[in-house]
Specification:
Elements lengths: L26 H12 L6 E4 L7 H8 L5 E5 L4 H10 L7 E5 L2 H10 L6 E4 L5 H14 L4 E5 L5 H15 L8 E3 L3 E4 L10 H9 L1
Parallel strand pairs: 1-2, 1-4, 2-3, 4-5
Antiparallel strand pairs: 5-7, 6-7
Helix pairs in contact: 1-2, 4-5, 5-6
The structure holds S-adenosylmethionine.
Length: 207
């Protein structure tokens, strides 16, 4: 058993390294994040799977500067973590991060009392990982607006869709409330926080 994950400490100065800036971010992902954040522009925004901080994270840093941001990722090496810190330097005063698998960092984050208004799910793409992340969010952050990558017909997209199918079959969310724009998915019934349906309130109560 490893240690309980804790928040990353930001240094006083950026690291003296050339940060990796490889980006696999698509404008369709940005559209969904923006749409979710417009409904809760002050956040907090929680991101599962931040990579080097040059994709999804930048939408919120640049366009929703009032929103606190919490980033979860494996940050598998010191250099990757340092690269993320350098790439997100501009948003550092409003950011926190935790390194590790989401099955460990999500419970650790929840234990701090943190409650996100918006969650972007883009960490592990294996079916069990997506299932674990999304069901954790449904159970522990029932008020959050939720979306994620990758609703495609590609290798990872098929696994993401299989996880969602399981969640639907288990009755945790109704099929008609799972929308997508060809790349990213989102739960349509959470887009307007003032018009929550009875079904969702039922989930919160059931768990
Ligand atoms: C597709 S990338 C994220 C891309 C990023 N959102 C962007 O817009 O650039 C997936 C990220 O999830 C992280 N990841 C994979 N499995 C994970 C897990 N079980 N827990 C936390 N992070 C994970 C990887 O380290 C990788 O950085």
């Amino acid at each position: 058993m490893g240690d309980t994950p804790s928040f990353v400490e930001w240094p006083d100065e950026p690291f003296p390294i050339e940060a990796e800036t490889r980006d696999c971010f698509s404008p369709l992902q940005g559209d969904v994040i923006r749409n979710m954040m417009r409904r809760a522009p002050n956040g907090p925004y929680l991101e599962l799977g931040t990579m080097n901080g040059t994709g999804s994270t930048q939408v919120v840093i640049k366009e929703f500067p009032e929103s606190p941001i919490v980033c979860l990722d494996l940050f598998q090496s010191e250099v990757k973590l340092q690269g993320f810190i350098n790439n997100t330097w501009e948003g550092r005063h409003n950011m926190r991060a935790m390194a590790g698998k989401t099955c460990d960092t999500l419970p650790a984050l929840q234990a701090t009392g943190f409650k996100p208004a918006v969650v972007w799910v883009d960490a592990g793409h294996e079916e069990d990982e997506v299932y674990g992340d999304v069901t954790f969010i449904l159970k522990h952050f029932p008020e959050a607006i939720v979306g994620g990558d990758d609703w495609s017909t590609g290798h990872w997209g098929v696994k993401v869709q299989a996880a969602m199918q399981r969640i639907i079959e288990e009755g945790l969310i109704a099929r008609r409330y799972v929308g997508n724009n060809g790349r990213a998915w989102f739960f349509t019934n959470r887009l307007d926080p003032d018009k929550r349906c009875r079904f969702l309130n039922g989930i919160a109560a059931k768990n």
